[in-house]
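Note to self: keep these together.
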Amino acid sequence: MAEALEKQYSARKVLSRQDELVELARSGLAASAADQTQVRIIASDGALTRFANSEIHQNTFEREALVAVTARIGQSEGSANTNRLTKEALVGAVEQATAAARVSAPNPDLADFPDGPRDYPFQVDYYEGSAACTPEERAKRVISGFNVNDDKSYTAAGTLSTGQVNVVTANSRGIEAAYNTTLAKYTVMWSGPSSSGYQEQTSRNIADINTEKASVEALAVARRSADPRGDIPEGRYTVILEAECVATMLNFLCWMGLSGKDYLDQASFMCGKLGEPVTGADFTLADEPLDPQTMGVPCDASGMPKQRLMLIEGGVARAVAHDANTARRAGTASTGHDTGFNFPMPTNLVLSGGAATREELIAGVKRGILVSRFHYTNVVDPLATVITGMTRDGTFLIEDGEIVSGLTNFRFTQNILQAFANCTGMSTKQVFHSAFWGSGSLVPEAVRVDGFNFSGKTGF
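Structure:
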């Protein structure tokens, strides 16, 4: 059944459907009696092949739709949703949103919806192979990942997902933005008697996903970290943080303080710090949706065109992300970061790289620890940017510039900004790690940090 649905919903039909969704949004706007109305439509197909113990055990296919209507009468706002892509359902949602606006208390912080039409900086890529990938095609790719191993003491688990999404945003002030794109993502973890290794790949184009390469790399980490030493105590160490660790830290930094809402609510580490140093001088972080490596989209949830935003430059705090409402409160302009959840946030982070290779960074460590991945990461103190979590899937001891053995895992408790202030090198090569659909972080392959705080140990 899933295969039949996938083949039926070919890329050609997806492309023609975009026009239908735009017409649907227009019909909702035409039916509205509110002062201002916005219609946002998200229609997606997603397919997934899941495997464990080096065997495929699940194939799924899911079709989803969300039609979100926001209506305003004066400074009062109401909203309503439906998952039916029909004119009747949309008109009903418009009437419900308008009725809710009539009985809602005025909100003085509401800004007008953006006016249009607008020019958008790029057209997002769409790949038929990703949209129409069948279970058989995904299975073939997954099995090729299994075939890199002939040692039955190691088994693989993970997923290969493919799909497409159509997005339309239109409002009564002339905004009409539409795009459709695709996504493919492969994750694999090889587990043995005493160790594990993990890799992932994400692309809009399934042809870019190399399951054999990712599987070989994950298996190599698992084998190299086998029989880990448990005699290295907690404490502060020089560390090599690989890309996934760096991306996790940036995502938490983003959630803890790069939103204009947090800034205005005095809940951001950036409060009172704009124009001042907040981390080391080698740290430059920007939101770069126009960089094709970040898999950005051309507009935000309100239809504002995406743009580059410098967040921290040479260690100095420069800006936070705003949507129209937080920009109104701050007396500034929207930066194009409406997420649709009343919480503007950067979604296409780029941390500028350094001048070293991963191997050169490791060679510069007298005694330290290499961390492949973080796990169960949580916030301890958002204003101090302190997080805690565990190491996982490849933790190694470094001595005299060489990786000498695997280690049992640590708990870490670390101030993110302080970690980057203590950075002594970053790789030139950058790697993308996804966070949400159409978002993620482009980060150095490896970062070296002095004095990283491991606050506890595990027995595995």
